[in-house]
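(Protein data)
===
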Amino acid sequence: MISMQRRGILLTLFAIVLGGLFIPQVQAQPNQGEYLILSGGPALRKWENLRMPGTQHDRWWGNFIRPARVRIEQIQKQNPNALITWMVYQDAFRLRSQEDQRDLFSLVQSVRDKYRVRLIWFNSGDEVIRYINSGQNRSQVKIVNFEYYGHSNKFCFMFDYSSHVYGASKAYLHQRDLGKINKRAFAKGAFCKSWGCHTGESMSAVWRKSTGLPMIGAVGKTNYENPMDVSLSDGSRWTH
């Protein structure tokens, strides 16, 4: 016969094994990759005041911040655990803060704090390329989503259009530099889109050649009059 002590041990072991059958198994989740959002900077009003009414840009400092915030919120609703990095062009906000006599950096950072995303200030196209290539361990963390909000023409993203110079840009990411991008930084089938004007007329094709991925871009202009919902201007269309 089994002693009372031994019976107690056996019952305890049986309970542990049986209980283990009902413990939810925690499995390692595959890395879902990084969402990279890029925001250009606002123009200075002193330059925009030289334009005819109806042709002015960036009357509001947050034209390229609010759409990024909306997009971040959309991503987090779809994927609450999304790894989101938000790169914002710094020098234009320094100049516009001086012009507006208001600390715009703290307003941008409040978006970071509210949505708990990684905010990186940058000042050149080369910095953007370096982050794409090596801002994370790209053997483990691939970019699954890349989007740009800001000024652009058919050849480049213009981060500081009408900021330092009226009607021109000193800081940009030109299509001739896209060959520096390591295509292995991106996940297969990554979503790429430029919300700037004219990207689809040339830069999208060079992006595809350099990265192997299509980038949706506008043929024609985009409209930021409602920064909650960036749209195409009349007569424009999306392409990749």
In short: The chain is about 30% helix and 20% strand. Residues 4-20 form the longest helix (17 residues). The chain has a mean pLDDT of 86. The CA atoms of residues 33 and 142 lie 5 Å apart.
